Amino acid sequence: MTSKNTAQLKAAVATLSWGASFVATKIALRECAPLTIIWIRFLLGLPVLFLLAAFSEREHLRKEGFSLGCLRSALPERREWLPLTVLGFLGVPFHHLLQSTGLRTAQAATSAWIVSTIPVFIAILGRLFLKERFGKRGVLGLLLAATGVLTVVTRGHPERLLLLQDLGLGDILVLLSAVNWAVFSVASRKLLGSSGPGKSTFWVMALGWLQTSLLFVFSDHVRELVALSGAVWMSLLFLGIFCTGLAYAFWYDALRTLPASKVGVFMYLNPLSATVVAAVFLGEVLTGATLTGVAAIFLGVWCVNSR
Questions:
Q1: Which residues lie closer than 8 Å to 74 by C-beta, 6 or more apart?
Q2: Residue (of 275, 272, 279, 274) closest to 297 by Cα position
Q3: CA separation (Å) from 104 to 6, 25, 168?
Q4: Rounded CA gap, 175 and 223, in Å?
Q5: Which of 32, 95, 99, 255 is the most exposed place for a label (fewest CB within 10 A)?
Q6: For 182-194, what is each residue's pLDDT tens digit?
Q7: Rounded Cα–Cα distance for residues 240 and 232 (Å)
Q8: How far is CA 301 from CA 148, 177, 307, in A?
Q9: Do residues 297 and 152 lie in contact, with contact meaning Cβ atoms separated by under 8 Å?
Q10: Average pLDDT in the 194-216 region?
Q11: Are 265 and 139 in contact (CB under 8 A)?
């Protein structure tokens, strides 16, 4: 498997995990505030990110051995602290507070479609700031995948999008989270030019979690930790280990190898994953229109990422 194929697989796994995170977050919101979910999620995900970062640096440690110099190299350079801190804020407390808070009130028929606009924002920002090419075939694939998402979300009834005329606060917050994630992904792509993905991912998430901790410690939500049920803890473990630790590491690895626009299109798998997981765990029915939309999504992603 080539490095390009590996990057595509990692991007797909990351976005499929994030799609499932919608269901896990919905379960956790029954007993937790959004801030509590974010704090626990990244607390559980950071050890996974640390181990992955250490594993990615194994060759360097094997050659140089453990020394004070190696410890210094594990820290970001002085010029990297500010952009890493800003990315940490955008990728952790800001993004997830917007999304988790929005999920409390956003209508299911519109929120998944709003989230699926992320590839469009990434493609536009990638063209403006990274000078990435996005040819006719890429545009075709983007539109095809968007049509597939529309079919999945509306169950074959596009007239449901008329609900967008009644956007509430939850829908607006979800839309802002989509724009923010596009900014985060494109900014991360630029940062990866000077720092490895494993190291960057860990420090971005660690700094983001520290900022979240400042909000959490001085909130009234700390007491929620002693009353959580087993189902909620299982959801939080899934969010922390898979949707944070592994998914973020895979996303950064993909951004290192592929243009941001080609990675961003995998976000179309997000509502697909959410639909399948909801069918398994919440008993929602998969219709023929949904399966048709799934096929269109996969075909669109292939068009964008094939030569």
A1: 57, 199
A2: 272
A3: 35, 10, 11
A4: 31
A5: 95
A6: 899 888 877 765 5
A7: 12
A8: 10, 22, 12
A9: yes
A10: 85
A11: no
Residue with tokens 């075709």: 140
**Residue 225 burial by Cβ neighbours in a 10 Å radius (0-12, 13-18, 19+):** exposed
Written as six digits, the tokens of 111 are 């929120």
83 sits in which H/E element: helix 81-89
CA–CA dist 297, 271 (Å, integer): 10
* Confidence (pTM): 0.78
Task: Tell me the H-state helices in 196-287.
Answer: 197-217, 230-240, 247-257, 260-264, 269-281
Q: Which residue has the higher pLDDT, 70 or 127?
A: 127
Which value, to the nearest 10 degrees, does the dihedral of the CA atoms of residues 268, 269, 275, 280 take?
Answer: 180
